[in-house]
Fold this sequence. Notes:
Layout: E1 6-11, H1 30-33, H2 36-39, H3 42-47, H4 49-63, H5 70-81, E2 85-90, H6 96-100, E3 105-107, E4 110-117, E5 123-125, E6 145-149, H7 159-168, E7 171-175, H8 187-193, E8 197-202, E9 214-217, H9 220-233
Parallel strand pairs: 1-2, 1-7, 2-3, 7-8, 8-9
Antiparallel strand pairs: 4-5, 4-6
Helix pairs in contact: 5-9, 7-8
The structure holds ligand BV8.
Amino acid sequence: MPAYKSIVILTGAGISAESGVDTFRDKDGIWSRVDYRDVATPEGFIRDAARVHEFYNQRRRGMATVNPNAAHAALARLEREFSGSVLLVTQNIDDLHERAGSTNLIHMHGELGKALCQACEQRSAWSKDMSALSQCPACGAVGYLRPDVVWFGEMPYQMERIYAALAGCDLFLSIGTSGNVYPAAGFVEEARLHGAHTVELNLEPSDGHSSFNEAVLGKATEIVPAFVDGMLSAR
Ligand code: BV8
């Protein structure tokens, strides 16, 4: 295995699946039970905020019942032990990567454990249910809180930092994502453009599988630790 210097990793719902967190587009996934336009768009929130709050309240409550798995732990180990740089960009809004020990981490679609106040634009930690009666911990306003997540039609977070990292990496790993949602699904092309070697680690080939140099198929808790072992033993 070549001696890489800079790794960018993109993760999606598949890396949390074996922790018991629902994915979106698998059979009986989240989008098979609810229409994303009703619960993951600004228009849906304007139409029926209570319904959107309940959608995220259920998922936030679920966070208390799940734990990081061996794939999350392997990525945290890679960040600790790899001699070069590792940036982890996740589409997931759960906190399993940080609980596994990853620190150089970007939540490009936001975080379930944060609230965004539409009055003062401050973000605050938020672990309980949220509703139109919730009060902003920063400014005290009532009725202005929304989940701090990126909905369809909204700009994902820290895109400049992500594109700068993609331009400078020599290895791009995509783990547990179906490659359906942009701009995340376009990161592999961006990395290839700048000469990176690109690997997809997934249960099955994603929609973007043909863009990758290499594919490792299987369950994340098996293929990710093995891949990281290979990376670290090749030093
Ligand atoms: C943007 C919110 C522009 C938080 C999510 C019309 C109008 C506006 C935009 C668009 C439009 N048409 C298209 C777009 C672009 C749109 C888009 O891409 N749409 C798609 C559907 C076509 N994108 C956007 O809107 C983005 N914003 O474009 O802004 C802009 C420009 C300028 C100024 C302003 C704005 C915003 C996208 C973010 C949307 N928010 N979530 C939440 O509720 O979670 S997206 C949602 O999908 C989640 O965030 C999720 O992370 C993301 C991707 O899903 P995956 O993580 O890949 O999960 P999935 O279930 O699909 O796949 C799981 C995979 O894991 C599978 O492949 C499976 O095989 C594998 N797997 C399962 N088990 C395992 C496993 N692998 C290994 N081991 C296992 N055990």
